[in-house]
Amino acid sequence: MGVSIGSLGFPRIGAHRELKSVLESYWSGKIGAGMLRGEAASLRAQNWASQRKHGLTLLPSNDFSLYDHVLDTSIMLGAVPEAYTQLGGDPSLDSYFAMARGNATTKAMEMTKWFDTNYHYIVPEFRAKQRFALSSNKPIDEFLEASRLGYETRPVLLGPVSYLLLGKTADGIDPLALLPHVLPVYIDVLRRLGNCGARWVQIDEPVLALDLTPGVREALVASYATIAKITDGLNLLVATYFGELGDSLDLALRLPVAGLHLDLVRGPEELARAAQRAPRSMVLSLGVIDGRNIWRADLRAVLDRIEPIIAVRGAERTILAPSCSLLHVPVDLSLERDLDPDIREWLAFALQKIDELCILGAAIDRGRSAVSDDLERSDAVVASRARSPKIHRADVAARLSAATPEDSRRAHGFDERRAAQRGALRLPILPSTTIGSFPQTSDVRKARAAHDRGTLDHREYEAFLREQTASVIRWQEEIDLDVLVHGEFERNDMVQYFGEQLDGFAFTRHGWVQSYGSRCVRPPIIYGDVHRPAPMTVGWSQFAQSLTKRPVKGMLTGPVTILQWSFVRDDIGRDAVCRQIAFALRDEVQDLETAGIQIVQIDEPALREGLPLRHARWSDYLQWAVECFRTASSGVRDETQIQTHMCYGEFNDIVDAIAALDADVILIEAARSKMELLEAFAGRYTNEIGPGVYDIHSPRCPSAQEMADLLERAAAKIDVGRLWVTPDCGLKTRTWDEVRPALANMVTAAKSIRQKTSDRTM
Questions:
Q1: What number of other Cβ atoms are within 10 A of residue 400's Cβ?
Q2: What confidence tens digit (pLDDT) does each residue in 306-361 have?
């Protein structure tokens, strides 16, 4: 028996974003539930067929989701808040999507980042007397669906401990106190899978890569001891990823399960220790191919690491796998016909990563000579990338080496800057603004596509964009927003737009990755040194400012977010890449100021996302991340206001680092949590802050009173003189029919609280 080739999960969206298309057709009423489910089944069948064709022997099932796998787990366990149970039975698709994105009458559940990725999950909600019951047969149904197509699969479940720790409780109880109520449902699901013929089930416990408290350790041990007693005969593989196990390695190896998956990309040093300490009977799944990035592996180097271990433990007790689910990479590199041939040769997407695993497996089973051509090709790719002149720039290296501490400091402190900015901007108390983007309508998308195809010439396209920009400036004045934005109609994506104008970036046409639900992004590829050859945003900002006397913000994506939302080169440190981006943006900020732009917003929604999973590494990361933001933002006069924006992350534990950014104003998501976030900011953040009062990820239009109530909550925690009024995030994914009334209500809310504040001080 040879080594097995496994996958922890496959991209759900389809090579051509088929899932996005069908979801948005369903939401708009163009198709019904039957067609949605049918198209989803077709996509699952395509995924299984593609993986099998490329040689995968352990196919995953239940890795597919219509929106989010954590939400699917909540549905499976019956953990549906009461507000959504009344929208449909069992629960219906309508209640499922209401939980995910809200509807006209119901708010969506909270959403945040999945560990240190740009994937967003729907946060489970628990209460003290929470009851759980099997409410969805999805894992069993999809296993049987694959069986009918001739595929034996390994179902994937989010583990009970990780699931509970990813949730939040309304009444302050420890989520792990609910474990005795959750485990019977998991056992029921596992028994049903076993009865249906499943031989292996993968249970993901990514919390094993975190710093674990004694209580979490006890919960993991107790959970799997209970499960093992009752599901005898079913092989369980516990999967951990996104980091090394560290001091939890022995705990994981002692769990009474048949197999353990290790992320050997993030924790390569653990291979020898795990192999030495693992029970002889335990199957080890070796995550040796990077499931988070798109660079081809050095296959000979991987073999040098794993061959001695497998020779001792045996191929029959070894699975070769990606480091984590392939959810985080695009589907198929073969679709990319426009990439620079040299750069394309350096890459591997999901299907190509399976190919790499199969080459490794063949080398283990039949010897390296059986795949000598593949290994020689891998060697050639590694060598060509290392010596390519496309990667390094002497001028970029010289600038970084000449950097000084003064490059990351404003000339004066916040109080002096604040006085200068108030005199220059003359804004009212509780100034209203938006995060930056306005709806990317079908007309905007069609015009961009026509321009890309060459059927709309550049002059016509620019005239169209100018008309859109002028229109949105007029409309913002009409509803009486205080600080305007130009709408970003010229931008395809908040990272891609900048990467396309920076040296050192490459772009795909089909390299889509799911961010949440139907939201897909095409992360740029940072393959070489980053340099700004020319201004990127100055022209559009200057044009918009010429149309109004109100301040129009210059809009930039910050260095950490550009880094985090790109596929980053792995031949130098991420901190070095981020510094290169920071200096490129510094030049842009200074050019905006020279062009007369008084407020520059530098968005950093990914600052929290980049935080290492282990606390011991936080300080180093936050030090260079904060330094990079300050490098980008510090080269301007006191009168120029620097704003930043963050959203959909747990920011409580990094408030001090956020304060250290020294932005004059932070605009931050807070509507879904009803201003809970401000508990952490009160007393620890002294600059100005705009907590979001409008959840833009839902089609629901909040009333002026609702937003005024949120502002009152905010004013109870933060001095009203430091508050701004803003939506949670950019508005590009919403429609104008949703945006117009919501923003008008937001301005009304700001004015009403402004008037109340004025009345109190008279």
A1: 14
A2: 999 999 999 999 999 999 999 999 999 999 999 999 999 999 999 999 999 999 99
| Inside any domain, residue 224 | yes
Q: Which domain holds residue 277?
A: 248-388
Higher pLDDT, 356 or 674: 356
Q: What is the spatial distance between Cα 298 and Cα 301, in angstroms, rounded to a whole number? A: 5
Name the domain count of the chain: 2
- 60 vs 8: CA distance, rounded Å: 6
- Which ranges in 495-617 belong to alpha helices (H)? 496-499, 538-545, 559-564, 574-594
| Statement to judge: residues 292 and 167 lie in one domain | no
- The DSSP secondary structure of 390-429, one letter per residue, reads TS--HHHHHHHHT--GGGGS-SS-HHHHHHHHHHHH-PPS
Q: Is 328 designated active site?
A: no
137: amino acid identity, one letter? N
Question: Residue 103 corresponds to which tokens in the numbers above?
Answer: 């509807």
Q: Can you give the pLDDT at residue 596?
A: 97
CA 365/CA 259 separation, integer angstroms: 20
Instruction: Tell me how many degrees the CA angle 315-317-321 measures, rounded to the nearest 5.
Output: 80
**Distance between CA atoms of residues 411 and 529, nearest Å:** 29
pLDDT tier at 760, thresholds 50, 70, 90: low
From the candidates 54, 451, 486, 697, give the one annotated as an active-site residue. Answer: 697
Contact 230/191 with Cβ under 8 angstroms?
Answer: yes
Q: Between helices 299-313 and 270-277, what is the axis angle to 10°? A: 10
192 and 108 inside one domain: yes
Rounded to whole angstroms, the Cα distance separating 534 from 730 reads 26
Same domain? 140 vs 164: yes
Candidates 404, 410, 469, 421; CA nearest to 589 is 410
Same domain, 202 and 88: yes
Between the alpha carbon of residue 193 and those of residues 7, 156, 179, 493, 551, the distances in Å are: 19, 11, 21, 42, 61
What CATH number did the domain enclosing 111 receive? 3.20.20.210
- Mark whether 95 and 228 lie in a shared domain: yes
Where in 434-571 does DSSP place strands (E)? 503-506, 513-516, 519-521, 525-531, 554-557, 567-568
d(CA 433, CA 227): 52
d(CA 351, CA 14): 12
* Strand, helix or coil for residue 32: coil
> What is the 3-class SS of 167-186, one letter each residue?
CEECCCCCHHHHHHHHHHHH
Average pLDDT estimate for 425-436: 95
How is residue 347 annotated by DSSP?
Answer: B
DSSP H helix total and E strand total for the chain: 28, 22
Q: Any alpha helices (H) in 259-349, and if so which ranges? A: 270-277, 299-313, 341-345
Distance (Å, whole) CA 632 – CA 407: 9
CA pair distance 668, 275, nearest whole angstrom: 45
> What 8-state DSSP symbol labels residue 139?
H
What is the 3 state secondary structure string of 698-750? CCCCCCHHHHHHHHHHHHCCCCHHHECEECCCCCCCCCHHHHHHHHHHHHHHH
Say which residue the tokens 């985080």 belong to: 328
Per-residue model confidence (pLDDT) at position 762: 46
Find the helix packing angle between 33-53 and 18-27, rounded to 10°. Answer: 170
Q: Is 323 exposed, middle or buried (0-12, 13-18, 19+ CB in 10 A)?
A: buried
In contact, 314 and 278? CB cutoff 8 Å: no
**What one-character-per-residue DSSP string does 567-581 give?**
EE-SSS-HHHHHHHH
For residue 521, tell me if it sits in a domain: no
637, exposed or middle or buried, with CB in 10 Å at 0-12, 13-18, 19+?
middle
The Cβ-side half-sphere exposure at 32, using a 13 Å CA radius, reads 1
- Sign of the dihedral defined by the CA atoms of residues 678, 679, 683, 685, in that order: negative
